[in-house]
Amino acid sequence: MANEIFMPKLSSTMAEGTVIEWFKEEGDTVEVGEPILEIMTDKINIEVESYNDGILLKKYFEADDVVPVNHVIGFIGEAGESVPDEAPGESGAASEEGLDAPAESKQQDDTAESATSKSEVSGKRESMIGKVRATPAARAHARNNDVDIKHVTGSGRNGRIHKADVVNHLYTQTETPAKQTSSVNEPVSSAPESQAAPVRTEKLRGSRKVTADRMADSSSTIPHVTLNFEVNMDTLIELRKNLNARHEDVKVSFNDLFILITSKALNLHPDVNITFQDNEISYHEERNISLAVAVDKELFVPVVKNTEKMGLFGISKEIRRLIEDTRSRKLAQEDMTGGTFTISNLGMYSITSFTPIINKPQAAILGIGATTDQPALKDGVLHNRKVATLSLSFDHRVINGAPAAAFCDTIKKLVEHPIELIL
């Protein structure tokens, strides 16, 4: 009997996984413990290993397909064994093992579209709609744009329709009528049409797709309010310079200092150190600060945990570990979860201020802009001062303007008078 390959549930909050890449093709030999495909969840790429020896008989999903946890994505067995032509949906083996399954409708009536929309990724759903093979993203895009999926030509394997195919179909449909709008009385130009310059296209996939989806979800579901405020960086710059001169083995960065400052401010403003999910506010004793880290075109947000128990050098050491693991793609899943507040620092670029997007389910994020020179009077003498603009975006459903402004004032005080950090 053929053995199921199913989308594993790797955390209590995981509801679905994205297929990144198959390492085996149908007909290839597979051994126990051998990686057969790579999936992504919570921005972490994880290799799925085989639990069985045999032949990869079937794989139902391709790269970028999103599959609910516990759903069958393929079969391993003996050569010639019979397996379903379409994905059978939820794994019986996964259910028997007591794994949680997503709360999805399993009705097979095509008229119950709203009740079954969440289960479209299963092969059962695909087989019900005129045997059309299409990815969930393609079906959703077609539905949102009133496109009959049966009229779209698929570019994928076995004619499978991807979202790009639906987009191209829409473009073709809208472009064709436009070329027929000229009057019959107008002369037809004999000049050749100019050839459009080639356009390079790139499919959004992997962690970039996960990040894009989460950013869109956050910006569309959270009422963002952003407060911008200036801080004098002179004292903090001098402090960092003196620390690095005295401790050559540990180079303190501005990220280190801002995480310590933010941790102190969150201690004084516990109403900001919160998460909001399922209509419930969670107040966190731990101050787990996420730091946005860009790697090539991808964005990761590792978490410095329990900053309330760490000094500056401890924070500095942990950040370096997290950044190194992020850049080498060795970041563990637990290093990406549990954050209660996020910092996004663009100070190394010429960006003076920006509006950061909240990292759900957190309720606030601090953006740090570049430090610039500004003229100022001191004792009647004109001199330069170093100034940076910070931006606090917060979820106005659970944080009001006054508490957010008070938090900003505390950040400003700690930046301009960092002696307060040791009090």
TrEMBL record:
CDD domains: lipoyl_domain
Lipoyl-binding domain segment(s): 2-77
Biased composition (Polar residues): 176-193
Peripheral subunit-binding (PSBD) domain sequence ranges: 133-170
The UniProt record lists the keyword Phosphoprotein: no
Region annotation (Disordered) ranges: 80-159, 176-217
UniProt protein name: Dihydrolipoamide acetyltransferase component of pyruvate dehydrogenase complex
A Pfam family annotated for this UniProt entry: Biotin_lipoyl
EC number(s) per entry: 2.3.1.-
GO MF terms, alphabetically ordered: dihydrolipoyllysine-residue acetyltransferase activity; lipoic acid binding
Cited InterPro entries: 2-oxoA_DH_lipoyl-BS (IPR003016), 2-oxoacid_DH_actylTfrase (IPR001078), 2-oxoacid_DH_E2_comp (IPR050743), Biotin_lipoyl (IPR000089), CAT-like_dom_sf (IPR023213), E3-bd_dom_sf (IPR036625), PSBD (IPR004167), Single_hybrid_motif (IPR011053)
Functional note: The pyruvate dehydrogenase complex catalyzes the overall conversion of pyruvate to acetyl-CoA and CO(2). It contains multiple copies of three enzymatic components: pyruvate dehydrogenase (E1), dihydrolipoamide acetyltransferase (E2) and lipoamide dehydrogenase (E3).
Assembly behavior: Forms a 24-polypeptide structural core with octahedral symmetry.
GO CC annotation terms, alphabetical: cytoplasm
Family the entry assigns: Belongs to the 2-oxoacid dehydrogenase family.
Gene3D superfamilies named in the record: 2.40.50.100, Chloramphenicol acetyltransferase-like domain (3.30.559.10), E3-binding domain (4.10.320.10)
Record's keyword terms, sorted: Acyltransferase, Lipoyl, Transferase
Reaction(s) the record says it catalyses: N(6)-[(R)-dihydrolipoyl]-L-lysyl-[protein] + acetyl-CoA = N(6)-[(R)-S(8)-acetyldihydrolipoyl]-L-lysyl-[protein] + CoA
Basic and acidic residues compositional bias, start-end: 200-216
Recorded superkingdom: Bacteria
SUPFAM superfamilies in UniProt: CoA-dependent acyltransferases, Peripheral subunit-binding domain of 2-oxo acid dehydrogenase complex, Single hybrid motif
EC top class, as a word: transferase
Cofactor(s) listed: (R)-lipoate
